[in-house]
Amino acid sequence: GDSVTQMEGPVTLSEEAFLTINCTYTATGYPSLFWYVQYPGEGLQLLLKATKADDKGSNKGFEATYRKETTSFHLEKGSVQVSDSAVYFCALSEVGGSNYKLTFGKGTLLTVNP
Amino acid sequence: DAGVIQSPRHEVTEMGQEVTLRCKPISGHDYLFWYRQTMMRGLELLIYFNNNVPIDDSGMPEDRFSAKMPNASFSTLKIQPSEPRDSAVYFCASGQETQYFGPGTRLLVL
After folding, report:
1. What confidence tens digit (pLDDT) does each residue in B48-79 have?
2. Which of A51, A100, A108 to mutate to test the interface with B (most CBs of B within 10 A)?
3. How many Å apart are CA B82 and CA B76, to the nearest integer?
């Protein structure tokens, strides 16, 4: 079945540091890939997505590129802020039919210190 | 749009009691999803609906859990009887390929 593996947390960085959170996936077809973010006490919010190979999703300074050859979708940000402290989830959705199930990774807690 | 609305936001109950969680999806969204989040198991899909019809309930943990969607603007997730191991945050989401999550209901079963 489909699965998503993302790096174990927690990740602790200083403000303005470079961020990478690794995500790899296993899927039988050609999935769409997502990063969701969960701030404390809130629900998940879509951060960015990519629907086909070599697509780059970007939002709020975060980027991730859909790499089919390495089945990866790593999240990056050049300069993190304290307000980026949250849990980040990588997810995939198989494309086709009426199946919109999301398969999530376990989440990575990011803490950014001033 | 107000986004996905869930109620209550917090629920504390005693083991054996019935618990009902409610969700109002974003207007116009055909799909509605119920998730459970715990530290041990992460985020789990319990059930999802398309046009008010349950499509996949394979994630529902056992018969104590049931979900309904009587119309396009309302869904419930019921646990009867509740057990301490049901303590979790329950999220409702609506949408299709992109899902929009509600703020969640934090359930504590004593």
Report:
1. 999 999 999 999 988 999 999 999 999 999 99
2. A100
3. 15
